[in-house]
Each structure stands twice: as structure tokens, then as C-alpha cells.
Amino acid sequence: MIHVGIVGSTGYAGGELVRLLLQREDIQLVGLGSKSYVGAPYASVYPNFTGVLEDCCIQDDIGALAEKADVIFTATPQGLCSTLVSESLLSKTKVIDLSADFRLKDVSIYEQWYRLEHASPQLLPEAVYGLPELNREQIARARLIANPGCFPTCSFLSVYPLVKAGAIDPNTLIIDAKSGTSGAGRSAKVDSLYCEVNENIKAYGVGTHRHTPEIEEQLSYAAGKPVTISFTPHLVPMNRGILVTAYASLCKPLAAKELRQIYEEAYAGEPFVRVLPQGMVPQTRFVEGSNFVDVAFHLDERTGRVVMMGAIDNMVKGAAGQAMQNMNLMFGLPETCGLRQLPIFP
Q1: Alpha-carbon gap, residue 31 to 22, rounded angstroms
Q2: Which of 146, 178, 183, 281 is 20 to 30 A from 86, alpha carbon to alpha carbon?
Q3: Annotated catalytic, 56?
């Protein structure tokens, strides 16, 4: 039995964690922390848990949770987790952080893009970037996991095989990404109101989105050299999902079958990455509610460029599902445990 605590359990990512964890018989929830709903029944915050979960929300006290939890998920705003995690805490429990506090190794880049002072930079070298397809062995040995962002997860996995193989020039990479509104979180914001989002699509964070350096850092590791990209996210009127369409120039002429071989070899044996058959393109509706990543490519011989595409559910593979996948690895369990749900359709 794994004893699990959640700090920030009443946000969208926290609620998705609870949904996934409750489906497992080897998990015991020992604390559902919340800043806004202390003392309230969790099912009154999320009525989909009515009759299933009787627990009430408790104060977000990570120190108290550490005394009884084997692992703590922190689904908190940027900047908070770094003030909570310490060597003393990590000596008692493992931490999987769903914020950006431990994703970037260079503290100056974090502070530049997030405009926050990092409270525990001494832990950055230890933190493992929690992308199982990349860091499976390190995750299994880790005490502190930096769960990747939703945009970086989809963007990186869509383009990684060709970057790693040196098939494309990564500095020509342009990533166009679309996200559903749940990616903005549950707190009230004018830009997330129904009348603002419905029947509308817009770019945001143009040239300044905080996930840009995270994508660049991971692609730089893959390429073995510094990588600079153009990344533009868009908000679309749907609840869940991310769709990435990326473009880059080929380093040398390659046939479509050679590109497919690169993708298939890169993701051979990966339980959640699906390289789609030729002629199919990723669609958010066919990954919704699941931990799958659908990827595909199109070779544009006329321009000498390749179009790389990917789709995920931002709340599952982009947040809670990937966090649970990391937990499975940390405790020596099959990483698919509790994550075998097929996408919901229609």
C-alpha cells in the first residue's frame, strides 16, 4: 500500500490526480490539502466524487503530510513548492511537483521567465525531469520529480526522435500549439470566462510563454547543443487536450520511410506513445481521458521541411497521469499501473 498526500488537491490537476488514484487498490489517500476549501467535503468541491470519496479537505501542510505519506504530489502555483521542499522533507517522503519550480536546471533562467526568486536552488541538481520516455532510470531512483509541463510534454515527444537523430535542424523549429481551457487552471480569470473563450481562438504568450525555456532545455540535451525555438500557444474552446504542429528544415534529404523508421525505433516498446499509421494525424478527441501521446509526421518534399504533430490530454499525460506514471517508476511498479484507461469517445 502506497500512502499518498496531495498539496493543492482542489485545482484541476489535483482533482485529476484524485480521480486516477482512487481507481487503484494499492493507494491510500492520507491527505487532500487545499488552501481554499479547508474542512469542506472533497465531494462538495468536485461532485463527481459523491458517494465515492468521503474525505474532507485539510490544510495544505506539507510537513504534516510528510509524516504519514510515502509520496506527496504538489499541484501548486509556481514558486510555492520551492519554498516547501527541503532536505529534511525529502528524508521523510518523496515529492512529485507538478509546478515548474524544479524543471529548469539554470536558476537564472527560471527567475527570468517566471519573475520569481527560487527558494531552494540547492535542490535543482537533484531534481529529475519526470518524462519517463527520456529519464526512466533516473526517475526510478529519485526523491524529487519535476513533472513536465503539458505543452513541453506534447511538443518534445512530437519532435524528439528527429532532433535526437540529427535529421532536422532544431534551430529552425517552429512549434504551434493549441490547448483547451483547463490548462489555465480553475481559478477565476477574465480570459477563461465562457464568453471570452467560446467561438474564439487566440494566440497568447507570444514570444514570452514560460514553457519555451523548458522545451529548449530538453531539446538541447537531445541535440547535444544549444537549441532555440519559436513557440506560440493558442487557446481553443474545448475543455481538454493539446495539439502540436511543429515545422523544421531537414538537415539532409530523407525519405518518408526513413523518417518513420526513426520514430518507430525511438518509441519502440513505449507503452503510451503511439506512432500513427501513414495518412493519420493526431486528434485530441482520440487521446481524451487517457495517458496516450499520439504522434505523426508529414514530409514536405517541396520545401525540404518536415511537419511533426502530436496530441495529448493535458490533464492526464500533461499533468496527473504523467505524475502517476512517475510515481509507479519510483516505487518499482509497472509504469502502466492505473493508467490503462482507453481514450473516451465520443
Answers
A1: 13
A2: 183
A3: no
For residue 178, the one-letter residue type is K
pTM, whole model, 2 decimals? 0.96
Place 187 in a pLDDT band, splitting at 50, 70 and 90.
confident
Grid coordinates in use for 259?
523518417
Domain boundaries of the chain, sorted by first residue: 2-126, 151-314
* Residue reference for cell 499501473: 337
Q: Hey, what amino acid is at 337?
A: C
Per-residue pLDDT tens digits for 290-317: 999 999 999 999 999 999 999 999 999 9
Residue 119, class by beta-carbon neighbours within 10 Å (0-12 exposed, 13-18 middle, 19+ buried)?
A: middle
Q: In angstroms, rounded to a whole number, what is the distance separating the alpha carbons of residues 20 and 338? A: 7
Burial of 26 (0-12, 13-18, 19+ CB in 10 A): exposed
Instruction: Please name the residue that has the C-alpha cell 506514471.
Output: 325
Give the Å distances, CA to CA, from 136 to 19, 130, 131, 133, 267. Answer: 24, 8, 7, 6, 13
Q: Can you name the CATH fold of 2-126?
A: Rossmann fold (3.40.50)
Using DSSP's 3-state secondary structure scheme, residue 32 falls into strand
Q: Is the peptide bond before 271 cis (omega within 30 degrees of 0)?
A: no
Beta-bridge mates of residue 175? 231, 246
What is the DSSP track for 106-121? -HHHHHHHH----S-G
The model's pLDDT over 111-149, given as tens digits with 9 standing for 90+, comes to 999 999 999 999 999 999 999 999 999 999 999 999 999
Per-residue pLDDT tens for 155-165? 999 999 999 99
Backbone angles phi, psi at 2, to 5 degrees: -100, 125
Q: Which fold has domain 151-314?
A: Dihydrodipicolinate Reductase; domain 2 (3.30.360)
Those residues with Cβ within 8 angstroms of residue 240's Cβ, 6 or more apart along the chain or in another chain: 180, 182, 284, 288, 289, 313, 314, 315
Question: Which residue is catalytic, options 57, 150, 154, 251?
Answer: 150
Listed in sequence order, the residues at least 6 apart from 160 whose beta carbon sits closer than 8 Å to its beta carbon are 133, 134, 219, 222, 266
